[in-house]
Design brief:
The protein has helices spanning 5-18, 28-43, 53-76, 86-131, 134-183. With 184 residues, it is mainly alpha-helical. The chain has 2 domains: 5-104, no CATH class; 133-183. Helix 1 packs across helix 2 and helix 2 (28-43) crosses helix 3.
Length: 184
């Protein structure tokens, strides 16, 4: 099929509506969105389309590549900015939204990985504890209780020591102020 600018503009409008880029690459949802775009374009009577999912994806990739190359050429040509058409604006919008959606997908994948790692660690810990003998369990619990008590006592003593030092400094400052008042 030979594409013209009007058809490219309709394609970009449909992509902005369907937003196939908000789904991960290669997913069924993304493919379904591209199929919907192709179906809606085929339903148009003016201009006439005869496209499938693959043709739509390839055409958009070609348009985007051409747009990026043209922008780079204009940027190198001493900062000349030509007039932006509606198609150029639509491509920029799609690229911006696609970039934001890709970052969001990467963030979700990272969060899922972290939660899976936490679940795996807790499962391993539970498995390890269930395989312990009674004597090992008692020994581990005794060790955990001792470390907790030591920490709390040490923390309390450190807090009281700091508090006493601050009070001592404050009283020293008050005495100096009183001496100065008496002298004046």
């Amino acid at each position: 099929m030979a594409w013209n600018e009007e058809q490219d503009l309709l394609l970009c409008r449909e992509i902005l509506i369907s937003q196939p880029y908000k789904f991960p690459f290669g997913s069924r949802e993304r493919g379904h969105c591209w199929s919907e775009v192709a179906n809606r374009l085929n339903e148009c009577h003016q201009p006439r389309f005869a496209v499938d999912q693959r043709a739509v994806r390839e055409r958009y990739a070609k348009i985007e590549k051409y747009f990026k190359n043209r922008m780079a050429r204009e940027e190198r040509a001493s900062g000349i900015n030509g007039e932006e058409s509606e198609l150029d604006q639509a491509i920029q919008d799609i690229m911006g939204m696609a970039e934001a959606a890709q970052e969001e997908i990467i963030q979700k994948v990272a969060e899922n990985k972290i939660s899976r790692d936490k679940e795996r660690m807790t499962a391993e810990d539970v498995r390890k504890r269930s395989m312990e003998r009674l004597s090992e369990t008692q020994e581990r619990e005794k060790f955990e209780n001792e470390t907790k008590k030591r920490r709390s006592n040490a923390d309390t003593l450190e807090f009281l020591r700091e508090k006493a030092e601050k009070e001592f400094e404050m009283k020293g400052e008050e005495l100096e102020l009183k001496k100065r008042e008496i002298e004046t």
